Amino acid sequence: MNLKTVFIRFYKSFNFDYLRKYHKNAQRNPWEMIDGLWYPHVRIPIDGKVTTIVGANESGKSHLLSAIKKGISGKDINREDFCRYSRFFTVEKGKLKLPEFGFEWVDLTEDDIAHVLRACGISQPTTIDRFLMFRTNRHPLIIYLPHDNGYAEHVISSELASNFNELLPRVINIDADIGLPDSVPIRDLAGDLSTTGEGIIESLGRQKRAKAFESLFRLKPHLATPQLIASGAEAIASTMAEFFSAPETPAERQEREKSQKELELARKLILKVSNIDPDALLDLYNALKNGKEGHANGIIQKINEHLSSSLNFPHWWVQDKDFRLIVSPREFDLVFTIRDKTETEYSFTERSSGLKYFLSYYVQYCSHEPIDDRPEILLMDEPDAYLSSQAQQDLLKIFQAFATPETNRKPVQVIYVTHSPFLIDKNHSQRIRVLEKGAAEEGTRVVKDASKNHYEPLRSAFGAFVGETTFIGNCNLMVEGQADQILIAGAASHLLGRKVSILETLDLNHVTIVPAGSASHIPYLVYLARGRDIERPAVIVLLDSDSSGNGARKQLKRGGAHGKQILKDDFVLQIHDLNEITMPHLSSLVEIEDLIPLRVCIDSSKEYAREICGADEEQINQITEEKIRSYLTGDKTIFDAIKECVVEISNGEYHIEKVGFARTTIDLISKLSKTNPQDESLLLFESNMKVLFKRLNEIRRRAERELATTKISQRVERAKDSFLKDHPETAKREEAHVLLEEIESALDNTLESDEIKIELSKIRRDFQLEIDLTEQIAEYEDFKTALERVKYAGRIATQVSE
Length: 802
Prior knowledge:
Strand content: 5-15%
Number of strands: 24
Distance between the termini: 24 Å
Number of helices: 28
Strand order of the largest sheet: 4-1-6-7-8-9
Structural class: alpha/beta
Low-confidence stretches: 450-457, 462-473
Shape: flat
Mean pLDDT: 84
Helix content: 40-55%
């Protein structure tokens, strides 16, 4: 049995699907009706293997996870969870309501089908490929089975509902806040350590244990005479009370509970994953206690061998293929240490938290065993908190292993929430679900058009849009190729290190550099980002000043379908627009490489020829300023000259590529800044890049200011609200005519405005607003609903079809 769809209504940030409610052609299902009124659930499609939930802060991501847990179990569904901005939220007697949950289940086994039919009271053989279940205010459990072209409702009794829960998948968690401890008492690990009597000192832990012994030894002077011994006994009792009798503070209790969870994780690693016999741990303890170091070392060696072979950790932790987790004995304890590719050992406290917590996730994965034959759904809320970008990519492999195990383990559906673009599986973009929280009663919804690369909620979730080929961020600088991206990013990082003004460099956390592949691809990439939906990110473009760049700029000016301009010409910069920059060896500036000083170009070319091409020193020495200048005829660029020079000195054997040249140039700039920060060529490079970045920042700020203007839907909403306040019960056609004119005056030349104009025309026609202007509008409630639909016309038009 697999979860296919989650239905939520009136739960915390989830109210109802307001877009479907105001969509004329949306299908109404029986479970969506409340006393004859239609309030469709918010529906979240769930992938059969792994589902990634993203969205801005407070968009309802964590609420979705708790809704799944509560809805499946039927437990802890409380009135306090009811959506507070829902029109159904009330304190009126007899009308307090509970949030409602539903689930669509597919991939049913024969046993699943038999169980469902039995709960529904169906005795005859029936074939079903799915069923829906809902927990509502009316009944604890309602099942809907496919019937003819619709669904048949079956209300399940309380007794059968309780039994039915045993059929449903079990919700499990990986604890994202617990890591392996630095050490753990050996006898505690083996389950042989009590909290009273023998072994109580071991239970304190290493730090408290050391403190206890220090306190006791400070009492040694009391042991000289009988009188002192008596007073010493009182002091000892007082000292021990500090450790064993003092009331536990909330912080101490929290720490003890955390330590207990860490101990359980260590047990899973040693006893379950590595399959170490607890008796072997007791043998180790006794060997250490009796000073049998050889025996103890032999046991430790075998434990480490089992750890290494059982974990196979380098397969999962690609950052260090030589990584090993090893254990060592310390007094009463087994200490966990890490040995990396430097062959140096570290404790967890000496390494990043990311490794510790990734190892924790991995151990929990390896040690997971189903309690029974029920399917399982793994829920995780922001597991990326402690992990580096690469570790997050490694974590994706663990999720995939849960969902598609290579062994005979049962697959587990995985649903996780993240804010990180690095925890997005770019090979499976169909698994992404974006949540967006609207204004007022709109609540949380699923963005069906999120797969389009530019959609706003995905950007808000982690500062990036998922595109067909790349991530597009909150402000996007589109460039022709990867070499441009490397030079700009490298120069920006270099200038940030030189502490220049933020106006003269680029904040790479704010600006995403998007290489298009060529100038001819840029208009299409701009269309992907801004031309297909109402949500349009800030985009600026940097083009070369050659024929391809000129052609791309003309196409952007010309616009897309129906000649609609999707990017203002003010947001396009060509290299020759940087007229304050002059390079004496060039007749004009054509591409970004022309901003690199000639001597840097020559040194970079030599390094490229040496490292990439494998040229000998005789050939490399032929790359001179004189030879490069000899190729700079007509409108040739500096890179054209370098290419011809390299081809000549090698008799056509070597070729230089822009990407490699860009990387070599940035490396050279970095070295110059360290060895000779006042180098003339370095200062010229910085000066040119400051000019470029200053211009790009000016354009960026204009683009962002335009983006920050009031949205069309907000303007429409203001006009509509004002009208309905003045005319709550009825209105004349002439008054509606003025309202529609006001709305039209707020529209612009966008897709959203086009859809609104179409909707306004329908309203004029359907309610006959152009004739008998002094007459009242017939069917005024329908008219008000039509006005609600106007606000969402743009979004409805861009939704994925039902």
